[in-house]
Amino acid sequence: MNDTLHTSETQDFELAFEQKYVRVLISPELKIVICELLADYIPIEDFKEAFYQIGEIVKAGNYEKFIFDKRSLRAFHQPTMEWYFIYWKKEMLEYGVKTHRKILPDEKWFEKMVQIAKAQILQNYPDNIIDQLDIKYCDTIEEAIAK
User: What pLDDT is attached to residue 110?
Assistant: First the structure.
């Protein structure tokens, strides 16, 4: 799959794969992986499967930044966020992905749920890697690429 998507935000990115719930774009030159969620809810097993596949891309490349576009979500699932935060991010850090940019749905309740869940994860997992990561929230893909 070497289709190149031609939108202003992702013109320098190639489609790595697309499934029912996610679309993943890569730019080896920019060392960026973008994961765009395509549904309002993603079952945890499908989420893990997609992120294992993203992990294989990271392991095979030289990526440093992961952009996670969650704007399509309308449901918040704590166990999924916990797995992503504690296990997946930790493994990706070992392969050089230190920079994480997140684009949240434009819903204040969702942002509040993320804050509550993050605080709970940090409390439950005191040996987490958050201090080793550069995490910022952005409003657009373009902003996430630039920051």
Answer: 86
The predicted model scores a pTM of 0.90
Average pLDDT, the chain: 90
What are the structure tokens assigned to 53, written together? 């596949």
Expressed in percent and rounded to 5, the helix, strand and coil fractions of the chain are: 40, 20, 35
Phi-psi region of 17 (alpha: psi -120 to 50; beta: other; left: phi over 0): beta
Which of 15-29, 57-71, 73-87 is least confident?
Answer: 73-87
93-118 as b/e, with b when 16 or more CB fall inside 10 Å?
A: eeeebbbbbebbbeeeebeebbeebb
Closest CA to 38 of 74, 1, 89: 74
Element (H, E) at 48: helix 44-60
